[in-house]
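Subject: Re: docking follow-up (S-adenosylmethionine)

Dear J.,

Thanks for your patience while I sorted out the input files. As discussed at Tuesday's group meeting, I've set up the holo structure prediction with S-adenosylmethionine included as the bound ligand rather than trying to dock it afterwards. The sequence and the ligand SMILES I used are pasted below, so you can double-check that they match what you have on your end before we go further.
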Amino acid sequence: MNTWNHGPVEDYAELNRASWDERAPAHAASRDYAVDRFATDPGHLSEVVRFDLPLLGDIGGLRCIHLQCHIGTDTVSLARLGADMTGLDFSPASLAQARRIARLAGADVRFVEAAVYDAPGALGPELFDLVYTGIGALCWLPDIARWARVVAGLLRPGGRLFIREGHPVLWALDDPRPDGLLAVEYPYFEREEPMVFDEGGTYVETDAVFTHNRTHEWNHGLGEIVSALMAAGMDLTGLVEHDSVPWDALPGQMEPVGGGEWRLADRPWRLPHTYTLQAIRRP
Ligand SMILES: C[S@@+](CC[C@H](N)C(=O)[O-])C[C@H]1O[C@@H](n2cnc3c(N)ncnc32)[C@H](O)[C@@H]1O
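The structure tokens for the complex came back this morning:
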């Protein structure tokens, strides 16, 4: 069930963390995350990071923080590309899986348990060359301006943000409808009130049954994201909108197009599916 709730804000972090803690082991066990491949193939990279490669470029030797790293498959992939990686997430169960996956991949990655807004305190005074984040990350944060200040505060002057994320137009769409129409149902712009969902299941194939299903989420418009970064002292260096997304975001209306990506089957040029944004902290 899906509820678009205008009621009082509950403790969003507690609810959301319980949902992620319960899903992390199921995600790590699902073939969609292909965790075994990290053990059997020393050159294996997550499909998400493989998609990023052309825009990401050479990250060898960069000190990189991956915000909202979940079970660490992308974090480990970035380590395999030569970056000195730290992953941060507020879900201890996700980080337990991330540490296990890094071990079996033979990757040297530091994982830190903290909420994004507490990241500067949790990580100490170290500044990073690269902040990497995305694919279902920003929707868990109520205040995009606060996020942008955290990102800027983690970067050394001249350091870079790389984010590929679900497009706010995609997040605003209604669940697939019997008539196949794409309908705008949820907020595009950031609102103080969360969208409250109560949904079993998850975005990977699994037989697991979940009980912590109530979540609070927020959308943030593309202009709001760019403006928040600029106000926080960042200069935009790239913004590319993509016609694919790395999960089946509109079940029944999307088709797999290879590399773990999905695209609207009918006239996909109507919909920006994801975007990659890059920005540099002003010197
Ligand atoms: C969709 S997952 C990210 C998925 C990741 N891109 C991947 O595919 O592995 C979202 C992650 O954000 C984390 N998260 C949500 N809200 C957070 C917050 N306020 N602070 C830190 N982590 C948070 C969750 O624990 C979860 O691991």
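A couple of observations from a first look. DSSP finds nine helices and eleven strands in the chain. The longest helix spans residues 12-29.

Let me know if you'd like me to rerun anything.

Best regards,
T.
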